[in-house]
Amino acid sequence: MTTNVPVIDSHHGTPATGKPNFLNCSSGLMSWAGTLDHKRIGVMYLVGTMIAFLCGGLFALLVRLHLWEPHGMLFSNADYNQIFTLHGAFMVFLFVIPAIPGSLGNMVLPLMLGAKDVALPRLNLLSFYLWLTGAILATLAIVLGGFDTGWTFYAPYSLYTNKAVVTIGLAIFVLGFSSIFTGLNFIVTVHKLRAPGLTWFRMPLFVWALYATSLLQVLATPVLGITVLLVAFERLYHIGIFDPRLGGDPVLFEHFFWFYSHPAVYIMVLPAFGIISELVSVHSRKPLFGYKLIAFSSIAIAIISFLVWGHHMFTSGQSTYAMFAFSFLTFFVAIPTAIKEFSWVATVWKGSIALNSPMLYTIAFLIIFAIGGLTGVILGALNVDIHLHDTYFVVAHFHYVMMGSIALAFFAGLHHWWPKMFGVMYDETLAKIACGIIFVGFNLTFLPQFIMGSRGMPRRYATYVPDFEAYHRASTIGAMVLGSGVALMVFYLVASLLSGKKAMQNQWGGVTLDWHTPTPPPLENFDHPPSVTTEVYDYSTLDLRTTQTPVS
Amino acid sequence: MSHDGHHSVVIPAPGPEFLPHTVAHHFDTPVQEFQAAKLGFWLFLATEILLFGGLFAAYFYYHEAYPETFRLGGHQLDWKLGALNTSVLLLSSWTMAMGVRSAQTSQKKKLLVYCGLTVLGAAIFMVVKFFEYKAKYDHGLFVFPEMFHGYDTATGQLPWFKDYHGVMAGVPHGHLFFAIYVTMTAIHGLHVLIGAGLILWVMKGAAKGRFHAGYFLPVDLVGLYWHLVDLIWIFLFPLLYLVP
Amino acid sequence: MLALLIQDPAKINYIEKPAPRPEVDAFGQLEKLASTFHDVDGLFYFTYAVCIFFFVLITGVLVFSCVKYRRKTFDQPPASNTTHNTPLEVVWTVIPLIIVMVMFAWGFAGSIDMTTVPYEASRNAYKASAKQWNWTFSYPNDAAKSYNEVWMRVGKPAQFTLESSDVLHAFYVPAMRVKRDIIPGRFQTVWFTPTDIGEYHLFCAEYCGENHSTMYARVHVVSEADYLKRPWDLWEDDTPEKAVKSAASLYSSLCSTCHSINGAVGVGPTWKGLFVKGPDGKITGKQRDVLVKGEKQTITVDDAYIMESVRSPDAKRAAEFPNGGMAVFPPDQLDDRRLKGIIEFMKSLAEK
Ligand code: HEA
Ligand code: HEA
Ligand code: CUA
Ligand SMILES: [Cu+2]
């Protein structure tokens, strides 16, 4: 990749400092387990959520292998049901929701604000331990008989099935509070700890996105908390709220669940939007197109997303008025998102584009998210959704947004801030290869699912009619390709920690405050209290001597 | 945690019976610390309200679906006891507010007295609640010991709902009202207990002299929490005891 | 639970008799439509085209930019530093808005058609009862029922009333573009007009537990003449052999999701060995441990016990299944005549 470097050699630029930093300022297990430093907590989140992702991915591979044969290849039906539930629950509650805010958010948000830490460091550590407790409880639930309800826990099945539903309910309750506390902390930090001169409209868009996410976390998650609590009560002492045999209404459960879980999809995706906004600008070395609109659209999405939950229930027999409103608002929420997508593309246009690995992941995101989002719009059309609801079309839609977009944005951010966090660089060539494998494997896995879904293949099927065999097999092969790409990525990232070469002080040439501190940052982030005097993303201020931007 | 080389701001104690307060290292000023904690706490209170919001939604939904059940069920509650508890909580909210004021004006003794009164209020509330629950138990409207026994899926007969006197006979799903009543009031009761515990913790700090005009943040926050507990009851009382 | 990497042999019934492969429409996406709901396909293809348009546009711009504006020197500045272009921003807000409003109106109108049952359909009312994990259909003005198979007249609008006695299920016939959740305790309906003679899949599209994926039924759309032969009521039991044969097929559509006949334990006990053949060829019931209100008793299996197991299974539960779980079949779902046939079938399994 450094073949055609005309101006400078690869060792030019300021390398990362050898001064004490947050990684080596103290050592020993307790210095991590009891740390209040947002960066260490971020690293712990990173390790935790990555492990959760790999476990979830492992379950996904089992799901795909099983579906190689129409009558199922590996498991009994009952076991298959547990595997896909585990896959969904791990991915959603232990990975996508906490991953970006917990790891990259924790790491970068105070740096971007020029703060010494988040506002409430103790609460931050508590969030992490709540996450860990949730993860342990979820794992315990597997041992205690597993759970086979699907990640949606629809009543009344979740009330009758003879499995560890209460344990996993408890896990979700605890994880919910972990998420709430992270959000709360970020809101306070953004309000109270901005560096002098850092006005709201000078904040990087990652911060804006995390802020909007936090609002959702604080306002939507409690409803999930009470919902799982009610399910637990229902199972333990049969209050009858969701149990039709006792006069309860299972549809009420669906309303409760989606009142949280629809905003939750934006809890997952807004931080990803933030990362993409950041990276598009840095790697095109161009101010973001339509900064204010992107910032406001995050808030708009956050607000509207509270009003569309009914689009998951178009076949459950809602009133015509409800259908009307939910469908209308669903289409409406697509507009701020469309604005974002177009603004990103316009930023890339006529930029100075460095095709390094974070940028490749970003471009993969932009392409995949267009498909994922637009298929969401298809699902918002009332009569079309009647046909497509609960088929693999929906499965493909949400994997395009959750795996193809959010997970890839997370990887993009990870590659972008990896040198900042650890002061080392991974192998760029391998990184580009892995990105390619993941992109191809991903599309091979999920494009066939759109087709079989629109031809009527229902989801959550352990066995299927032979008509769909060819699609399922293509999808399984794709998943294997995808899995090997992910494995490669984990490999070179870990390898870089052991023997990576030193990263540059400002590896990519960013101008936000996170690149103004030493790499890796010292314990309280800044050697000198920072203050901001320029507009955000103003690359004329970039000191090219601090950076060695790989040229491709 | 030691943060060598960084000097944190210290708020001096106003008198010998008080302790100074050290501002956390990552804040520049005491005001910043105070405001951050306060904003965070308000957000936390919002989540508490939303948590109860789910329960209220369920209440309204079933009130709509089974109006008769809720009417009859409401009659089984003793509105006089409910009203008594309402006034106890209102009074305790006042004593708590006075406690916060005493902290702000560095009146250590008064702070302890007012907090003590508030805890007393919490205790009275819980005792009254106990008698109310006991009455439900005696009438077989909520047989606590049998709460966790399953139920007969064919007949839908619940072990905890016996209704010895048949007061709910003739209305559909009579147990629903009591299920919602007990769930809501028990979760609220738990909040009362947590609140009382927090006030006791404040008293412990107050006795040591931690809170004074320069630093009263924990007292302020616990006070807010206690007002929230009170506020939720203000909604629960009419909905459960009066509206039906 | 993960230890069970083995396949349960007695579970799938639709694999043995695969349905004809669904035909595909011109675009290659949707299965051939066999009802009057053209709107669904029209809107689907419209949105599909919109998606492809925007996808191509976005990918095109990105790929072009990456090629043309790639950073070739270390300090190459961007070709432009524009951060605003109000007309452009208005355009890309308003055009998507118009497009999605079209989709909304079109989809809403279509869904009104799909949920408003016309008078003619309501006069041709079927009932579909879903339970874990099978379907029972009753016919307009006809006492007979059929299981996991349903016959309909071509060209005649029909309504299905949906009911569930346990958990959520969903009635889904892809070729007809209809789907509706079935909610215990709620009244739900779907309607459609089958337009083409043929056989179609009916899936359960709402997750309902272990055998959700095998909760499958076949929709036969037949001509008026064929319909009048009442194919769903072909139950022959003039001779014991015929009864066993009819019952065997009923078994495979109704009971085989939970009971095996080869000794494998499924959701319920196997039927193998329920009856045994003595040395004299006489068939008698086996000794069996049951739980009556939780108390263990030993009984001898006989016709009455079987009848009771089907009508009120919880009265005497098989001791290995203390939690029960047997689906109840009252007489209006499984009449005595057929139940007797099933008992004959069980007896025919007896071995020495
Ligand atoms: C993070 C995850 C995420 C995100 C971001 C989205 C985004 C969207 N989703 Fe998705 N969705 C899920 C996760 C997500 N979804 C999940 C998990 C489920 C299933 C849950 C389950 O049942 O298990 C689901 C299911 C789901 C359904 C229910 C399907 C069903 O079960 O029947 C619907 C229906 O309306 C829907 C719609 C949408 C819409 C309109 C958007 C919009 O926000 C998309 C907006 C984006 C774009 C529009 C693309 C970019 C813009 C352009 C390329 C410009 C051009 C645009 C236009 C012309 C409009 N989603
Ligand atoms: C963030 C969310 C997320 C992500 C990233 C994924 C990722 C993937 N999902 Fe997931 N999926 C869901 C969320 C997600 N999924 C949800 C919510 C459901 C619905 C569940 C329900 O219905 O209740 C679902 C359902 C679902 C189904 C449908 C099951 C069914 O309905 O019957 C399928 C089937 O193909 C599937 C496949 C995959 C695949 C192949 C991936 C791949 O992208 C995974 C790629 C990752 C890897 C392959 C990891 C690599 C691992 C290794 C290399 C092994 C190393 C391991 C260790 C060291 C431990 N998923
Ligand atoms: Cu019945 Cu799924
Ligand atoms: Cu949604």
User: Helix/strand/pairing class of chain B, anyone?
Assistant: mainly alpha
CATH-defined topology of chain B: Four Helix Bundle (Hemerythrin (Met), subunit A)
- Write down the overall geometry of chain A: globular
- The general outline of chain B is elongated
What is the number of strand segments of chain B? 2
Quaternary state reads heterotrimer
Question: Could you characterize the architecture of this molecule?
Answer:
The complex is a heterotrimer of chains A (552), B (244) and C (352). A two-stranded antiparallel ribbon of chain A has the order 1-2. In chain A, helix 2 (38-66) packs antiparallel against helix 3. Chain A has one domain: Cytochrome c oxidase-like, subunit I domain (Cytochrome C Oxidase, Chain A). With 552 residues, chain A is mostly helical. Chain A has helices at residues 29-33, 38-66, 77-113, 121-143, 157-160, 165-192, 205-237, 250-284, 291-304, 320-348, 357-380, 382-388, 392-422, 428-454, 469-499; strands spanning 424-425, 501-502. Chain B is an all-alpha fold and 244 residues long. Chain B has a single domain (35-142, 172-242), classed as Cytochrome c oxidase, subunit III, four-helix bundle (Four Helix Bundle (Hemerythrin (Met), subunit A)), CATH 1.20.120.80. Chain B has helices spanning 30-65, 67-76, 79-104, 108-138, 175-208, 217-242, and strands at 10-11, 21-22. Chain B has a two-stranded antiparallel sheet with strand order 1-2. In chain B, helix 1 packs across helix 2. Chain B is elongated. With 352 residues, chain C is of the alpha+beta class. Among the domains of chain C are: 119-233, Cupredoxins -  blue copper proteins (Immunoglobulin-like, Sandwich), CATH 2.60.40.420; 240-348, Orthogonal Bundle (Cytochrome Bc1 Complex, Chain D, domain 2), CATH 1.10.760. Helix content of chain C is 30%, strand content 23%. Chain C is built from 7 helices and 15 strands. Chain C has helices at 38-68, 86-115, 119-122, 224-228, 240-254, 303-311, 336-348, and strands spanning 125-131, 134-139, 142-147, 149-153, 158-164, 169-173, 178-182, 188-192, 198-204, 216-222, 275-277, 283-285, 287-292, 295-300, 317-318. Chain C has a 5-stranded mixed sheet. A 5-stranded mixed sheet of chain C has the order 4-10-9-6-7. In chain C, a hairpin with a 2-residue loop joins strand 1 and strand 2. In chain C, helix 1 packs antiparallel against helix 2 (86-115) and helix 5 (240-254) packs across helix 7 (336-348). Chain C is elongated and about 100 Å long. Classes of the chains: A mainly alpha (552), B mainly alpha (244), C alpha+beta (352). The complex binds heme-A (2 copies), dinuclear copper ion (CUA) and copper (II) ion (CU). Copper (II) ion binds at residues 262, 265, 311-312 of chain A.
